[in-house]
Amino acid sequence: MKFRLPFLKNKEERSWANLDAFEGRETSSGININESTVLGIPAVYACIRVLSEAIASLPLLVYERFPDGDKERARNFSLYKILHDAPNPLQTSFELRELLVGHLCLRGNSYCFIERENGEVVGLWPLHPDKVTVEVQGRELIYKHQNDGVEKVYPMSDILHIRGLSSDGIIGYSPLTLLRDSFGHAKAVSEYSSSYFKNDASPGGLLISPNSLNAQSMSNLRKAWEQGHSGKGKHHRVAIMDSGLEWKSIGISPQDSQLIESQKFSVVEIARVFRVPLNLIQDHERSTYSNVVEQNRSFLVHSLQPWLTRIEQAMMKSLLTESEKQKYFIEHLTANFLRADTRERYESYKIGIDAGFLTVDEIRQLENMNKLEKEGRVNYGKDKNL
Q: Is the peptide bond before 203 cis (omega within 30 degrees of 0)?
């Protein structure tokens, strides 16, 4: 008897290709969107950099758990160095995870081939999402990877698959597809702004003549003005006027104001999509010192933690055997993200020592310092009379 996933209704739904069917097609704003054009939007590039670099900079550790509830870093376990240091000979742990998060942000999926020797994981090799097709066969997923016209087929056990938000649990939604019109609008505003300032005849205002001008005179005057003040390098040049002509500046127009507001809205919209605080992409218009501190804390809880959990659980599922899962677990170290200033930390440590749930050596470890014993000093432990 073959097992059938309940959300699959017919044979056609049993295969998924990650290649974005909408990529390169025109959006409602008239802009063709693909990965390159989306990354050319400063706010998008900034958001993806913030997320990918923040996650990649967090130490990714393998811990060994003990029956009494304690845990220690499993430095002697082979997977520890692969996740913490170098997943393959070509990349560092930072570089691989930065790449995978970038794929997740734009494609909604990231893949790695799991290299094994004698059943032990010895390497992780990234696969581009556009070149991977996923098929369901019974209880298993089959991954097909196209590379230079050659197709390789991998069983589920050979692929680390990290999914974003999904409707079926097989393939994550592609933001390039779902948000193509939003990205297209941001790109259109950027291109219009560039064209506007390139062709704008500055300074902006009116030329007023005391005499009536015929069509030819108006054409000549307009042509002379545009040649002298329109285009790159000619903005804000000194205007010399004769024949009683008067210049009247009209300041910023309603159209200019709408363009500026539209650019601001695009930045806010993109930051909302990626759930990145505006201050982290250098938009400090709504920020103060006090709320920036709180925004950074919120960034870890509401933006980073869901991604960290996805990554950790996907790695636990694919990289550890059932017996290893009973002994080891994978977790990012986020303590540095929540570090307060020096005075607040020291006050917190004092409370911990006074309450008896922190020792001096534990505090020194949190501060990246050696234990007192290693420095030839006495470890007072929980002594309150330090």
A: yes
